[in-house]
Amino acid sequence: MPSVEDGGAMQIPPLSATSQLTYKAPPGSPAVAAGPADAYVGPAPVAAPSSEGSKKTGLRVAAGLALGLVGLGMLGCAPPLGAAPPPAVTCVSQHYQATGDFTVEIIPEGVHRVDVMRGTHTVTEKAPDGSDVTRTVDNDYHPVGVYLGDGLFYDLNENLVLVSDRIENGPYVPAEASRINIDPPGWSNSTDVSRSGSSWTVDPPGWSNSTSLDQDGCRISIDPAGWSNGTSVTRDAQGRTVIDRTGWANEIVLTRSADQVQVDPSGIGNTVTIRLSEGRTEVDPPGFGNTTVVTHGPGQSRVDPEGWANETSIVRDGNVIRVRPSGVFAQETTITLGQGQIQVDPPGFSNETTIRY
Fold it and tell me: Considering the entire predicted model, what is its pTM?
């Protein structure tokens, strides 16, 4: 039965060289019109001197005309007064109309995620007999990544997820924020995120382990510490998005049509279909009987994977988001959207995460 994971304290361990993506069944804007250019109003005509005008007067007139011509030349080189500034780079197409549908974003931990393509890595452990045992485990979710529209989010730990609350709502951290601090429970383990223009730097605890993200038009480059391990996320004019990760034949292609997104990783028979309709999104991985249905509307969404009594509701109550799993003894996670900070409070004690911006 598909699993749907959320909540918990953020852990961002370095991934091993054998990191890979596997699917895991869950448990533009209109072009900016330039403002009207202000018409230049030149100086009043200079009166012709009288027949008794002196040579000095003639020189003054000539000087005035020369200055006027220089002024006109300078105005011709400068932008018209009151003209609209150049529009920001947008990656809009027939199916992606919002400028925020392709951008670096921070989605707090605790905000519910549905796995579309879960990143994995291998770990080696000692068996009771002393032998080495290797197993594959899921990557932790990361709060920083690229928002792709339709609630889809690709994070720095190679997880492609659907964030149901984001479908109907805007970003959690304002787009204009330039310095963000993500402070999970514990000591000396916060992550700093800084932005300068179209470049971001993610600096976790430790040394020489920062990740940079640079947006150049409709291409976002993700460059973690190390060599030859970068990822690019590119969107073309038809709304086709390619996530090109390190290695050969390692792409994920998202193809958007009017009513669905096809998610195609490398390989055969592993396509995930995301069906889109008014107030309803379905995540359908390969196989049968493992579709997750997400219903969403103003102020609330509901995630219902296959099976019984395993749905999760996400409710917005003012500036508080409440994530409520099903079950008699289930406890909710609250995310409080405050002024200049976000507080994530999962079940338990002394385990809050604060995001300051």
Answer: 0.75
